[in-house]
Write a structure and sequence with these properties.
This protein has 468 residues and is α/β, with parallel strands linked by helices. 32% of the residues lie in helices and 20% in strands. It has 3 domains: 151 residues, 5'-nuclease (Rossmann fold, 3-Layer(aba) Sandwich), CATH 3.40.50.1010; 73 residues, Elongation Factor Tu (Ef-tu), domain 3; 206 residues, Rossmann fold (3-Layer(aba) Sandwich), CATH 3.40.50.
Length: 468
């Protein structure tokens, strides 16, 4: 191994490769070391159809390809990582090497860490490498917070794997709306061109402000000359803004409901826009994400016939103890996970026809609403469907890509979630698939995003959210 001080040696924990198999190629000019216990843990995790098992098998395939044609004497010199094609391209920028543990590492763990656990073996390996290579910076990379804490106690530098981090801070995430300055009209009166087309009002705005806007971004100006609009097109310093419909008025309802605030009104406009194929709604509990999405879906499916049916799905991550296997068909197994959707359906199907009218409405909805599990999405193509993905913050970027790429012609996908409420191990606000999708789609003109800020569930729920 090179003893150069600026060339670091990263010791990878098993959960890093379980989380992202391509982590092997993310350290550029630095070397990677895999303890033998990591290979043992990978072998134990290869069985099954879960996302983790698939990642483990992909890691094993990468390692097998790297070792192709390598004899035993070359392994000690390290395997060059730039020999493998990744996504059809050689990893030319990766100049580091991959080292395996081929001999026992002599290191004495303190008595405060008793037992021969995999984590302690990895710590012992890192300590042994530090002693064997004093001029090399040895860094343990792990998604396990407790392992990183133990490493810090022992004087081993430890870091989280952050290559899949979309943003440095979730507060930098695109919010989907922007308040225009109070003197907006004073600066743009001479540059604004206004016209109407098919009952819609449009403005063409020129200037440096327009250069900073994103397609489908929601803009608003408060006061007597206030407006609420969506950026329809942007060309250099020019932008075309379309005024949105006001669904807060009692005469302008969507399947019997109205928007209660500005963000909800923007959300309904995007949900009902056939030009937007992908919509993301972020917000805390009680902001109306599910209710608005269902109302817009029912209106476009049953009244306007834009979509053939509504498909509901979500990641099956339990908050408490897992209740075990559930009997029945795929739809029956998913029903307990869809409680939030079912609660909102009850609100939307309140009819004046008594029990008979309510039963007829529920039968109609059952024929046009399907509940599917994310586990069976691979290989499918959905045509003219309105897909609702609830609790999307619990998906990895890879799972999010798998779902979105199932969309066929005429399909709209709506992702709902709260990035502050992630239940999946090793996912954070900045690495969630929902954060990933919001950031990657913000420049695409056929997508829309809005962050809902105000809770509208009840005064009790609002007080509890703010004070508990």
């Amino acid at each position: 191994m090179s003893e150069e001080e600026n060339n670091r040696l990263f010791v990878l924990d098993t959960n890093v490769l379980m989380h992202d198999p391509t982590a092997l190629f993310r350290f550029k000019e630095h070397d990677i070391f895999l303890p033998m216990v990591v290979l043992e843990e990978l072998d134990k995790g290869k069985k099954g159809m879960s996302e983790v098992a698939r990642n483990v098998r992909q890691t094993s395939r990468f390692l097998d390809e790297l070792m192709c044609g390598i004899d035993g004497s070359e392994i000690n010199l390290g395997l060059p990582l730039n020999t493998l094609q990744l996504n059809g391209n050689h990893a030319d920028s990766v100049t580091g090497r991959l080292f395996f543990q081929t001999t026992p590492v002599i290191s004495h763990l303190p008595d405060s860490l008793p037992g021969n656990t995999p984590d302690n073996n990895i710590l012992a390996t890192a300590m042994g490498l530090q002693e064997a290579h004093p001029h090399k910076l040895v860094i343990l990379v792990s998604k396990d917070i407790n392992l990183r804490i133990k490493a810090a106690v022992l004087g081993i530098r430890a870091e989280d794997y952050s290559n899949d981090q979309v943003l440095d801070d979730v507060n930098l995430l695109y919010r989907g709306e922007e308040k225009l300055p109070d003197d907006f009209w004073d600066h743009h009166t001479k540059e604004v061109e206004a016209w109407q087309e098919e009952g819609r009002t449009f403005y063409r705005v020129s200037g440096p402000d327009a250069r900073e806007w994103y397609p489908s971004q929601c803009l608003y100006l408060e006061g007597d000359h206030g407006i609420e609009g969506i950026v329809r097109r942007r060309e250099g310093d020019d932008a075309i803004i379309e005024l949105v419909d006001d669904f807060r008025h009692q005469k302008h309802t969507v399947w019997g409901i109205n928007a209660r605030n500005r963000e909800q009104n923007f959300a309904l406009n995007m949900l009902l826009d056939p030009e937007l194929d992908f919509v993301t709604l972020l917000g805390t509990a009680g902001t109306g994400k599910t209710l608005l999405t269902l109302a817009a879906g029912l209106m476009q499916t049953l009244d306007q016939n834009l979509y053939r049916e509504i498909i509901m799905t979500r990641g099956t991550v339990p908050v408490g103890e897992d209740i075990g296997f559930l009997p029945g068909t795929e739809e029956e197994k998913m029903t307990p996970w869809m409680g939030a959707l079912m609660d909102n359906l009850e609100v939307l199907t309140q009819t004046e026809g008594g029990e008979w009218g309510r039963a007829a409405t529920e039968d109609l909805l059952r024929s046009r609403i399907r509940i599917h599990s994310l586990n069976f999405m691979r290989g499918r193509t959905f045509l003219n469907k309105y897909i609702i993905l609830d609790e999307a913050q619990n998906l990895t970027p890879k799972q999010m890509k798998t779902l979105i790429t199932r969309a066929g012609p005429g399909t709209k996908i709506v992702c709902l979630g709260n990035v502050a409420q992630i239940d999946t191990p090793y996912l954070t606000e900045t690495t969630s698939g929902l954060t990933y999708a919001v950031d990657r789609f913000k420049n695409w003109p056929h997508s829309g995003h809005i962050t809902l800020l105000r809770g509208e569930r009840s005064r009790l729920a609002d007080f509890a959210s703010n004070n508990l």
